[in-house]
Amino acid sequence: MDILELTLILSQRLSIIATVAFILSRMPALGRVLSRKPSTKDKLILTFVCGGLGILGTFGAVEIHGALANSRVVGVMVGGLLGGPLVGAGAGVIAGVHRYFVGGFTAFSCGLSAVVEGFFGGVVYKYWRKGLIPWHVAWLAGFAGEIIQMFIIKSAHAIKTGEIQMLLLKWQEDLPIYFQHNLK
Question: In which broad location class does this protein mainly occur, judging by the first location in its UniProt entry (predicted)?
Answer without folding.
Answer: membrane
